[in-house]
Amino acid sequence: MLLLLMCLAATSLRAQEQTEPQQAAPAETEVPKPEKAPLISGVAVSADLVGFIMKAMNAKFANMEVAARLNILDKYFPVAELGIGDCHREGAETGNTFDVTSPYMRFGLDYNFNKKHNGNRLFAIFRYAFSSFKYDFGNETFTDPIYGNDTPIPLRLDGQKATAQWLEFGLGVETKLWSFVRLGWSFRYKARVGLNAPDEGDPYFVPGFGRNDGSGWGGTFNLVFDVGKSAKKAKAKNKSNTEQVKTVSTK
Amino acid sequence: MRRCLPILLTILMLAACEAYDCTLNNHVGMYAAFDRDGTAVQINDTLTITSGKSGPTLLNRSVNTASLNLSLSYWQEADTLVLTVKGTDYLLRDTVWIKKSNLVHYESPDCPATLFHTIEEVRSTNEFIKSITVTRSSVNYETTTNLQIHLL
User: A55, A154, B11, B114: which has the fewest C-beta neighbours closer than 10 Å?
Assistant: First the structure.
């Protein structure tokens, strides 16, 4: 699904670039100045809509996260992501249950490949992520098959503590929706680099990572709000565009 | 868009499959072997093992027994095993006490949970058993010998 969205975004991005009005050719004597973004080009906050939608749909697991990032030269974007991972799983035939609701954090950098400052961005993504969490494992019908006379002794292991660390690499696209509102998609490969779990067993689900394994895939669908400098710039641009339209119409 | 479609379908198909990855050999057993003066032997007569006097029968009328694979209790701190050897005109009986700690073990909600054990102490009566050596204290999915039973 994410890949499809990314494809659509890339197509629309290309289409936008193609349909941009051609500016009048400069006079032969004028040397066009390369576009240069300010050092701090803005700050943005965002939310991954997939996790919230999954939670609203009562899915078995969901990673709900928000993020904040800085825009440096419209090329480097240091990012901090904070989220809550939630999972409830029941074994198909075993009667086992697994529950976790815990926070996770990611820090990293997005690198924008698009040299034009036209509001569209194609990112390379790198993140370091970690989560320190507690989870519950249980079985209400747990029975000792030899010594137990088929009498269940409920098994409850609550508050099992674990920590996990992983790295994420991926690609993302982002496009301007309206004024300071943007939409972004990302697709990421996750590589687990550390896991500390109790002797009883490893967690089934790691918040922010997904199903516990050596590696995995994930994605985000972000609603992004530019705040700070870039938002002001966008407002000013909108205002000047409106004034220009008024001037033209009065003429 | 057309180029993306096959990739997308492949990813969706892969995502639809869910592997459970449960351990295939998921039997937790305590393994024991017999020897006499350092030489491996087998008990040719009929061997029956029960848990205590009224507990479950763990081994019923086994002959030519060279090794044992016995289940330990999930929750008891010590198990009592009664070994009875019945020959043509004799009956020998020894009792083995195994003190242990128990640890719940799980892999996934989709795999059965079980208990691993750590053998802390073993002692026995000496009608036909001379002594018992703990060779591996961890009782888990591994199948190597936990107890070496030295016979008289």
Answer: A154
pLDDT of A62 higher than 90: yes
Among candidates B4, B14, B11, which has minimal Cα distance to A9? B4
Residue A197's identity, in one-letter code, is A
Q: Is the ipTM of this complex over 0.90?
A: no
Task: Please determine, for residue B16, whether its predicted confidence score (pLDDT) is greater than 70.
Answer: no
Burial of A228: CB neighbours in 10 Å, binned 0-12, 13-18, 19+ = middle
Residue in the structure block whose two tokens are 């530019």:
A226
Q: How far apart are CA A226 and CA A180, in angstroms?
A: 5
Note whether residue B20 is domain-resident.
Answer: no
pLDDT of A251 strictly over 70: no
B120 vs chain A: nearest CA distance in angstroms? 18
Range(s) of the domain holding residue A74 = 36-250
The residue segments making up the domain with residue B79 are 27-151
What residue of A is the nearest CA neighbor of B70? A146
CB contact under 8 A, A142 and B113: yes
User: Could you give the percent of chain B with pLDDT greater than 70?
Assistant: 87
Dig out the tokens for A220 from the structure.
Answer: 């985000």
- Window 125-144 of A: residues touching B by CB (8 A cutoff) are 137, 139, 142, 144
Whether the full predicted model's pTM is greater than 0.95, yes or no, is: no
Q: What is the pLDDT of residues A189-234, one digit of tens each?
A: 999 999 999 999 999 999 999 999 999 999 999 999 988 655 556 5
Cβ neighbours of B103 in A, within 8 Å: 199-200
Residues of A in contact with B58 (CB under 8 A): 146
Q: Decide: A77 and A250 in contact? Cβ < 8 Å.
A: no
- Interface touch A200/B105, C-beta < 8 Å: yes
Would A16 be classed as within a structural domain?
A: no
Domain membership of residue B124 (yes or no) is yes
Return the number of CB contacts < 8 Å for A and B: 76
Give chain B's domain count.
1
CATH code of the domain containing A53: 2.40.160.20
DSSP A119: S
